[in-house]
Structures
1.
Amino acid sequence: MIDLRNTNTLWGSIIAETFSRLGLTTAIICPGSRSTPLTVAFAQHSEIETIPILDERSAAFFALGIAKRSSLPVVLICTSGTAGANFFPAIIEAKESQVPLLILTADRPPELRNCHAGQSIDQVKMYGNYPNWQTELAIPASDLGMLRYLRQNIVQAWQRSLLPSPGVVHLNIPFREPLAPTPEPLHCQLQAEDFFAGISNFSVAKNTFSLEITAQIKNYLSQWQKCDRGIIIAGIAQPQNPEEYCQIIGHLAKTLGWAVLAEGLSPVRNYANRNPYLISTYDSILRNREIAEKLSPEIVIQIGELPTSKTLRSWLENTQAYRFIIDSSSENLDPIHGKTTHLYLDVSQLQPIIDFRQTNVIKPENYLKTWYNAETQLRTKITRKLAATKTLFEGKIPWLLAQNLPPQTPIFVANSMPVRDVEYFWQPNHSQIIPYFNRGANGIDGTLSTALGIAHRNQSAVLLTGDLALLHDTNGFLTSNKFLGHLTIILINNQGGGIFEMLPISQFKNTFEEYFATPQNVDFAQLAASYGIEHQLITSWEQLQALLNPLPEKGIRILELQTDRQTDAKWRQENLAKFATDLVEKSPN
């Protein structure tokens, strides 16, 4: 438990033991010399899983994936110098998506800084304003007062990574030599059980409401019930309990008689049986200007972040409906700057406020029926069109995944085009599939490593990604020898950035291909072979479907689909517009 071989081992073991007692289960360790006392302490701790990962950027995103899945902080350890700088992209994503990470950067002592001692940079506050909290610890010392100081700073770090909102904590930790666990005389009288007596597992309990706040929410509920032109937007969300989350949203929708516009990255689409008023084709519906105008709402309940759809955001901005945002974070979730009231609560906290014993469901009025009729028409049109599409069109992939993946499969959706195709085409289902994503900063970095972190020691998982996002993080494959579980990578290889084909810059051919689409011309079969990864080239939809259910239990495999990004972009532009144009407004009576 406590390593008394020298002052540094004592310091490191107290850090590891304190974190363990608070609830830490996983530490990701990057190799290096200055971090030796931390590496030894965590590697020797029997209650903490330690995973060595060579590349710091990949390690940070792997930790991010584990923390996303567990909602518990994960420790990241690195040596001094530029090693910690490679954590920065994942730190930004963790901050923006409110994921708890504990960054421990080893450092040289003050006397070896600013004197070209080697592998020494200014690491104090190196992550700017992104951490919830950051500090530099004192030089290790063995007297009891300093050990108490260390213990309390570790407790503070753990708590600050979870409160008031989950995020990043950075501890910069200087060490003098000897860095190895070389025995040295150590005069320390420490009774471990007494020293750690006040420390126990610390997690964040759900907030309890005062009678005043409960009454306020009930007043809002009464106001909502009087409105027959309201909608609920189930936006981007990764709830810890997706079934409860979807059940509460479904009950709220039935109580109010309101449509639920569910983002493709929301679990609501995968619990379709919980909600009879589910709208998945809102992006196409709202492209029909006449119907979009008639569907203008009076009240909108926005749960979580707004969906990706620009069409939806533009419509909300134009209609200027009064919006209630339900989310427990203190972040501003209104990028369109509308008339909003932010209710700082988790969806689960609506449960005692809404009467779940109520059995009568409000009869859908004309406004809801207009939504429902449009959804029915468009879902039928999209299904028929995609079912008849024999060529390898990118948008058909998420449509097939929704129908064929095993129940409760975790799926990580990469940014750029895959996340948009999921919003357009992911079909509502009852499979309880669990979507994951990095939509905090919306970057493509760390895609593979995050997906591996989510899949580690988890149910067999899937990554849906384009070629550039995968290539940007191929060092993630270095983790394969430590990875436990299975990840199937659905690779859309369209020779470049498909998202740019949807943007105005695609018309400027003289610079577009080389500077925006940036095709890389990589043979993924050879790339996979170099890492010992299974690879299969998919040439038909039937072949893909046969490989989706069941999924393997171990290893990593790439299922590559080679598509044409220009043809696919044209398909989206033509058909999404045509779906909307062909909508027939049926009489709601």
Note: The chain has a mean pLDDT of 92.
2.
Amino acid sequence: MGCCGCSDEISSKVEPTTPENQGTPTRHSEQVFVTDRSCTDILALIVLIALAVGYGFLVSNALKKGDIYRVVNGYDNCANVCGRVTPSETDPQFRCKGADKTNERYLLTTVGSSGVKDRTCVSNCTDQVIFLNRCVPKDLTDTTTSLIKKLGLENFYKVGSYIFSKSRLQEVSSDLTVAWRELIYLLLIALAISLGILIAFRYMVQWVVYIVLIGAILACIGGSAYLWYAWYGEKKAVGQHLVPEEDSSEQAYFIYAIILSTVTVITLLIVLVMRKRIALVMQLFREAGKAVYAMPALLLQPIYTYVLIGFTVCAWAYCMLWIESAGNIYMNRKQHIHFRKDTLLIVGRWYNLFFFFVTCEFLLGCQHVVVACAVARWFFTRDKKRLSLAVTRGFGYLVRYHLGTVAFGALVIGIVRLIRAIISFVQKRLKRYDNDLVRGILCCCQCCLWCFECALKFLTRNAYIETAIYGCNFCTGGRKAFHALSSNILRVAAINSVGDFVLFLGKVLVVTLTIVTGIYLMQKKEGLHHPWVPIALAGVFAFLVAHCFISIYEMVIDTIFICFCEDCEKNDGISRPYFMSCGLMEFVENSKKALNYLDHQPTASHS
């Protein structure tokens, strides 16, 4: 099986007779969706496999030198893990290591007057808060307070002390036991609302988009009018000496009014300029609804993906604990036993983070390719009633041909995210130094890399769509995607502004209605200590459910748009009939000619 990408030129030929296009006009159409493929970006897949092997080696090294309970439970001055039996060392220098601390479960850390920190395992924390198996004083000493502030953990400590106290955990556990039926009800309600929103996107998207646009315009106009009125009132009050000039907000109101007025004018101009493109957005929503209705298995894709990502997060956290606990034993100048990391373990820290980024992006990329393959095949099939197992075949295309392309995109995004993480680490280290110039440069680099990462993710997702259509490699797909997007920049702007905002409002609506319903149910529930706990948990579940469904809808819309662009470029609607529906034909230049031609072709199937 070859390993090269597809050819840039796809020859025009008579469309072959298959079960999916029987009964269609025998006109010469440009065959856009490629079925005869070869594997792509095999080198990137080999690199990813090599990274996985290297990751296994680093984790095995951490397993040999580490003990996860050193981090979870903590250890005393002799490196004895609290609540555990610690193996002894043969070196007489560490003879105190190896005690049985099974009955001493908590770590107590004290700081002497000389600044020496002592660690002791204790059986209970008298008059102290238990936080992550540590005894933390309720009234923090100056040294501990300064340490927590230096690490930026004061808010985390307050929240953790509140949540992780033994009585609080028992109350929360009791609340979840009492309200488990209501949580299931709220989850089902979130599921029903999400499905209802998808139905509304298909059948009532015109009203939804109009309401969003009119609401945004009225909010801008109303806000501008209010700010100008407030500025006028403040100016009048200053002129009449009712408000001292130094206490006046006249200048602030004036600046805010100018800014919001500018935003209002820009919004109105954008709506006027892109009014026809907004109609395309609504039609894309309708087409996406048809695709999801024809292939309901698309809605299951994010469930598999996010389950795998959740497993990846747990595995990453588990491996991180092993890496952080690992080290070579040594005794410091205070005669306390510690563990020092060597170069391989320090590299393992960053390697673990990088591999986590790459794995998550790889799983998301696999979902994007499967959805794009299924939707592209649906779009470029004339008789859609004969389409079968589109999602399954999309998964087959991914596994057989395009895992290397997904690996390529995941590696590129993973490298950028790793660079951002390194810059963030350096920024935190420089907080203790007074060097505004360096901090400013790093902040600018962080901002630029974030923008670059967002653009790269957007281009990568569209490159996957081109790969799904043509079976090409990542670079060719990226070039094709950039050409298609740059040639339709106004349409892309409309989709990414109006379309994404509508989808975002859909998520907000699901979460809001679920939380409001949860408040209504939990208020009448007896035996709850903290009603906000099940309500907040229901809100998180509602967001995950809404994101699963609506993120798929977003990918379907993007795929249909790229297919629309490729169909416009390869075919003309007359000598080479379009694959798109009549609704989408209204947005091409020769739409009238194409529709007139289609009216004289009774066998054509354009729904």
Note: The chain is about 65% helix and 5% strand.
3.
Amino acid sequence: MRLTALLFVFLLLMGTVSNAQQDTTDVKVGLVLSGGGAKGLAHIGALKVIEESGLRIDYIGGTSMGAIVGGLYASGYSAAQLDSIFRAQDFDKLIQDELPRDARTFYEKADAEKYAITLPFDGFKVGVPASLSKGQNVYNLLWQLTQHLGGEVDFKAMPIPFFCMATDVERGTPVMLESGYLPRALTASGALPSLFSPVELNERVLIDGGVVNNYPVDELRAKGMDIIIGIDVQDELRDREELGSALDILVQINNFRTIQAMETKIPKTDIYINPAIDEFTVVSFDQGSAIVQSGVDAALEQLDALNELASKQQKAALIYNVKQPSAKLKINQVDISGNDKYSRSYVLGKLRLRSPSETSFASFSDGVNNLMATGNFQAIDYDFNRTEDDSTKVSIRLKESNSRMLLRLGAHYDNLYKSAALVNVTFKRLLTNNDIASFDLVAGDNLRYNFDYYVDKGYYWSIGLRSYLNEFETNVGQELFLNDLIDPGQINQLALEYFEWTNQFYVQTLFGNAFAFGVGVEHKKMIQFSDTFGLTPDDSRTYFDDTDYGSLLGFLKFDTRDDVYFPTKGFFFEGQMNVYLTASGRNDRFEEFSIAKARLGGAKRFGDFTIFLGTEGGFKVGDDSTRAFDFFLGGFGFRQTGNLMPFVGLEPMSFRGDTYLKADLRLDYELFANNHLFGVVNIANIGNNLFTNKEWIDGIDYSGFGLGYGFETFAGPLQLIYSYSPEIAESNWYVSLGFWF
């Protein structure tokens, strides 16, 4: 009996010791985050609740958007920081690779502001772009946010150990990424097919991990986790009314497999958080606040379980503060790979990078945008590694674009040129690796063309060749042309045919992307005639000019505007001077003369309002007999070319003179995204020899007022303006649709 009692006491003590040991055993908690596009913002809301519970996360595994949120969280950001970061993003620009305008050279700015559609055209066969976006803006953002990690790292050594899933597109197999350069791994995991280009990494071509494993719960359990918390933001199947786009259908097809897989994965999840996000889509980034809140609400439903789990952990969660790197970089080495067709000096020139040198993260990012804006590269990867002397080694890996030909399309309507359809063929690396040749054919109510050949030498002297034809027919007042020839009699208006053929050869140098200076030579053929009447009974038309002119030209440009149609900030200046030395044709009274013209302006935004102020002018010196180069005032919505100067309140080509001065004021109110209500006031003086006669300051000859609505579309702006000019007591409507060309 005594022996039995002693044995009972012994067993009781052993159980007590065993329970004590179990109580002191820590609980390892893993967090799995699924992909889901914009729905993945719900991860941030759920993480807020998890943080507030005091729960410690020991390992994170994620896919696609879950990888991006999870990777940044594992690198040391708090949920509140992530919320602030994502709220500050313009996801439309981020996804569409919309590069800042100031990242482009002057040639690239003009080239990018004409076309609505761009397609591969190699071998004169129309292709389809591999994706909507190259993902460069996403990569740039992730690079900026992960600089505190200091280059390539073992993801297990991050503040919270981490891995993410991608898909080998050639083999159709899952790939677990656990080390390397975090921005590249996150970009690969989130490379949604058709939306983002595949990512080449470790000799594999990777796309979105959600294609084969959108919820890596098994992989996370294998890391030794005792408890798995899962946040699932995947789509449910949608009905036919909700499948409105190709992207919706692609997502639906992928959901067939993921939904089936979740039938076995949910039971493997200890705490399952499933936000109510059926009303959102994978691209509902504009509803980010509501999506984040859905994550908060879903996690709060599991708050008791989270609190209980946190109470079982022996070690509290660590609080990390992301340490931002120094704003300055001492670069002692630049390694460039992948540049088979473009020289190292070309790449460094576009990056504005030298070694050794001192620069900043912001300047380097601007340089990457400059290089990407050339369109010559499919992807630009880079990472920074600190050296022993606290300098930086920059490794840049380039993927050159294989496409050498592009087909580009556009359309436009205005009150002067009327309807026009634009077809462009662009050749890259036609004669050298740094050149580009572009041909525009404009067909519609008037036939035009524009040919450009440009050899880009970066900040050295670049070479350009340009040829363009500008032709239209319009009715003008007879007094603009007949008073110097005959008594007009009963003629009130002329049907004027205007023909301008220009050929230029020039050299140009750049100072940053804001300044350009160039000189060259120009041939211009001017033909102006009317079939309304003939000077003699035998003439069916009257020519006002039909002459070839030769000149020297010089130009200076400065432009920091963020947009050419609806700028909210920045300034611009354009100045050009031609010295006409030769003439051959009808103008037998030609004498040498010069024409100078310039315009400048600036925009400043105040809340939802933007104020734009501008002024311009031009004058001729010498040869009063040559009138073909007079300035013509009036109209709106056409690309300013030759000496045709827009003026709100007047019909196109309402007044002419060899001298003009003009000032503009425009007040723009952005009603909501891409919709503008604006008012315009402009004043001008125009006539002959205004400076000589001092008539440029004797008063205001003409004024015009306009009220308009503008809407930004993928094909360019739609602008509708009602205008009035008190001097002529007439009103006009202007319609302009599409990019100006």
Note: Residues 2-23 form the longest helix (22 residues).
